[in-house]
Amino acid sequence: MADRDGLIWIDGEFVDWRDAKVHLLTHTLHYGMGVFEGVRAYETAQGTAIFRLADHTKRLCRSAKIMGMPMPFSEDEINAAQAQTVAKNNLASAYIRPMLFYGSEGMGLHAENLTAHLMVAAWTWGAYLGEENMTRGIRVKTSSYTRHHVNSAMTKAKANGPYFNSMMAVTEANKAGYDEALMLDANGFVSEGSGENLFIVRDGVLYTPDLTSALDGITRRTIMTYAREMGIECHEKTITRDEVYIADEAFLTGTAAEVTPMRELDDRIIGEGTRGPITEALQARYFDQVSGKRDDHAEWLTYV
Ligand code: PMP
């Protein structure tokens, strides 16, 4: 990732990609106290547009508040930084990564003397879980690692440190031959994927785990809005892993993963073992929306 052409925004200025470096004693590198976002920009007929930019920036600022980190830039400035980063790098479509991190002024756990820095990078990133899986669906394994307890990592924050848990889960699943991990919460109920929220369909009704230990995903909210608009009943509830086994359809949602169908969980085939009709309809609407082919929710698209 480090050796490529491009510009990265840091604290209000652009630096060359290869010169975008921090000191080895950067506090966040040692303890993981930082917050970040994953945002996507898509190519549309009217130019490149960032999807739900303002919502991602709001979540970044809320994550900082939860972690007690000062945010040195306003929401408007953070929005502009992301749009400029896509434009300056001439990206038709992009994955955008803003991150707030602590500098290298000290190594103690108390953070009073530390300065907070904001960076924004952007690059081209295709289908996160594989293009062919967007139609046939992925194979998922329930993780042996438990999702963080709500009072250990603050699950409403998209904070850096807790992602070691996601990395261990997805690595374990990949090594066992699966595409993704399903995480259970500390009580054994279904929480989310390593980097996605989960939905299941049963008898034409959508269900998704409540947000006790899962991230408040922006794609999840988009899908819930569609369900309302399309007259599909949708409930947030406690979900068990065996409910997923016997679902008619299941899919994962996330900015990176978009809407990815699940065809198996723990070697049990879900429904027909391929992308189901409700998943397909929601996925098609999502892709039409992000690529500017729909004229509703115009406020979700920020042209760069
Ligand atoms: N859960 C986790 C753990 C994630 O990392 C992500 C990706 N940000 C999501 C859910 C989905 O969130 P969003 O739809 O906002 O990308």
Short summary of the structure?
With 304 residues, this protein is an alpha+beta fold. It contains eight helices and 17 strands.
Looking at this protein, list some descriptive labels.
17 strands, alpha+beta, nine-stranded mixed β-sheet, 30% strand, Aminotrans_IV, D-amino Acid Aminotransferase, Chain A, domain 1, Branched-chain-amino-acid aminotransferase, branched-chain amino acid biosynthesis, 304 residues, eight-stranded antiparallel β-sheet, binds 4'-deoxy-4'-aminopyridoxal-5'-phosphate
Describe this structure in words.
It is globular, with a radius of gyration of 19 Å. The chain folds into 2 domains: 7-123, D-amino Acid Aminotransferase, Chain A, domain 1 (2-Layer Sandwich), CATH 3.30.470; 133-290, D-amino Acid Aminotransferase, subunit A, domain 2 (D-amino Acid Aminotransferase, Chain A, domain 2), CATH 3.20.10.10. 27% of the residues lie in helices and 30% in strands. It starts with 6 loop residues before the first strand and ends with a strand. The chain has 8 helices and 17 strands. The protein has 304 residues and is α+β, with helices and mostly antiparallel strands. Strands 8, 9, 10, 11, 12, 13, 14, 15 and 16 form a 9-stranded mixed sheet that branches. Strands 1, 2, 3, 4, 5, 6, 7 and 17 form an 8-stranded antiparallel sheet that branches. Helix 2 packs across helix 3. Residues 38, 166, 192, 195-197, 215, 217-220, 253-255 line the site of 4'-deoxy-4'-aminopyridoxal-5'-phosphate (PMP).
